[in-house]
Design a protein that fits this description.
The chain is mainly α. It has 18 helices and no strands. The longest helix has about 50 residues.
Length: about 450
């Protein structure tokens, strides 16, 4: 029989060995660290939130804000360098193109691809909402209470689309003052200015363009260095952001809108399957390999609800793990983060039909066609930041006569859905980059490498 101290010593040694193995498992795996942060953050938020009643609302709010401090610092650090990174990446991506014909081909194909897949995503959302009818599962008394208690979002500046105004809007896409667009964070204007700048550099003599390209390359490296610093905060940032979110929402808000939430998530799952099929057919990647290569950035996009915040990591993932050439990745990814919001577009379709069902408004075929056109148009150039889907939804609802005040009914669960649709938006950008790269064919200097399945 072993002495008692000996058994106790063995237990400590086994616990220490288990701790070392767990630490070794987590170390170097950002996706696992982020996943652990997500689970712990949600659990902590539920314990602090209204579901348990352990803390007063004011105390829970203050504690949640402190827990989210690292998350706010992470987002601020990334967003601080997004504009210079996008500007430098788009120009260098264009300048790295083999010729102007390839540049023209990429631009036309990727724009048509984005518009087509966005329209398809909205149609998927509309059809699922019409089949499931999530609006029929909501108590109308809940509508009156919610709309009365929560003021509707400000939509006074959102006007119905007018055909006579379209030429003015198109002309206004090009920035008159590029520096002002950068300061205000107008991503579409920044991308268009960078495209014009990059095409001009391509048409210049290489000796004249080289100094500026070298300067932009140094700027790009500085931005990526800041990104590496920010990634050190990622797991703690995810924990804090989700703890704050869960402490505010609680379980009751999620359960009351369960069918609506499930409909949106089902639509996003269908869209994900469509992406994986497109990759398998046109991108020469199996679904398992793609998900393994992109899980870090998808989990981070889910946690931060901002495709702009993870754009640097998205470009890095496309180039290093999906073997997309730099010229394609650095052009397609920033453009996709600006106009390719398929997850958000699908959400617009479900939400519009849901609120129409709640208010008893019958949507005709013309109304649904108008929803598709409005959502596609509103998604182009929208900032890739948390909560922008609500602003777009206000415009979509206004276009078909659905009361925008009904948005107050879905505000409680919007952040959860925002996280899911952002992950799908980023997934769509990666899929587009890989497919465009394959459609262009392999360049003579590009070396084929196997796509890693783990990090």
């Amino acid at each position: 029989m072993q002495p008692r101290n000996s058994v106790f010593s063995l237990d400590l040694e086994s616990l220490a060995g288990l701790s070392d193995r767990l630490t070794a498992l987590v170390r170097g795996r950002l996706w696992l660290q982020v996943l652990i942060g997500m689970v712990l953050g949600i659990a902590t938020g539920i314990l602090l939130g209204p579901s348990t009643g352990w803390l007063t609302p004011d105390t829970a709010l203050a504690l949640g804000n402190w827990l989210a401090l690292h998350g706010q610092l992470f987002l601020t650090l990334i967003q601080m360098i997004v504009i210079p990174l996008v500007f430098a990446s788009v120009i260098r991506g264009l300048a790295a193109s083999e010729n102007l014909e390839q540049l023209r081909t990429v631009g036309v194909r990727v724009t048509l691809y984005f518009l087509l897949t966005t329209a398809v995503a909205i149609v998927i959302g509309l059809q699922l909402a019409l089949i499931i009818e999530p609006g029929g599962y909501v108590d109308r008394s809940l509508i009156q209470q919610t709309v009365a208690q929560v003021p509707p979002p400000a939509t006074a500046e959102v006007a119905r689309p007018n055909a006579a105004d379209i030429p003015g809007h198109l002309a206004g896409l090009l920035p008159r003052n590029p520096l002002s667009s950068m300061v205000e964070g107008q991503m579409l204007q920044v991308v268009l200015f960078a495209v014009v700048f990059g095409v001009a550099l391509v048409m210049m003599a290489p000796a004249q363009a080289k100094p500026l390209l070298d300067l932009l390359g140094s700027l790009q490296e500085v931005c990526m260095t800041v990104v590496r610093w920010a990634m050190l905060l990622a797991p703690i940032a995810v924990f804090g952001l989700l703890a704050q979110l869960s402490s505010k929402i609680g379980l009751e808000a999620l359960l009351g809108m369960a069918v609506y939430v499930a409909t949106v998530l089902l639509g996003l799952a269908v869209l994900l399957v469509l992406y994986l099929v497109l990759l398998w057919l046109f991108g020469a990647i199996t679904p398992g390999r793609f998900l393994g290569a992109s899980r870090d950035v998808l989990l981070l996009a889910f946690s931060t609800s901002s495709s702009a915040a993870v754009m640097p990591l998205t470009m890095k993932t496309a180039e290093q793990k999906l073997q997309v050439r730099s010229s394609v990745a650095q052009f397609v990814i920033p453009l996709g983060a600006t106009i390719n919001m398929n997850g958000t577009a699908l959400y617009q379709g479900v939400a519009a039909v849901f609120l129409a069902q709640v208010y008893g408004i019958e949507l005709t075929a013309a109304s649904m066609a108008l929803i598709v056109v409005t959502a596609v148009g509103a998604s182009v150039g929208s900032p890739a930041t948390p909560g922008v889907g609500i602003v777009i939804l206000a415009m979509v609802l206004d276009s078909v006569g659905i009361p925008a005040a009904g948005i107050a009914l879905i505000l409680g669960v919007d952040r959860i859905l925002d996280m899911a649709r952002t992950a799908i938006n980023v997934c769509g950008d990666l899929v587009a980059a890989r497919i465009m790269d394959r459609w262009l064919g392999q360049s003579p200097t590009q070396v084929a490498q196997p796509i890693p399945t783990d990090t």
